[in-house]
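Q: I'm writing up a methods section and want to include an example of the input and output format. Could you take the sequence below and give the corresponding predicted structure tokens, formatted cleanly so I can copy it straight into the document?
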Amino acid sequence: MKTYCWLVGLLFALPLLAKAQSAPPLQLVQTIPLPNVKGRIDHMDVDVKGNRLFVASCCTRPVD
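A: Here is the clean output for your methods example:
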């Protein structure tokens, strides 16, 4: 009975999942060089009001 309920629920959920994926993919708009960053990017945060992006790498201490 549980399997039947899962199948019915999945049957109703599939059209919603398919519609959620119909948006176009993201596109690269701009590349910003980070000359002092060595290694990989660890964390990012955005300040929408201030129009700023904060990026922290895992190998250097300061936030760029």
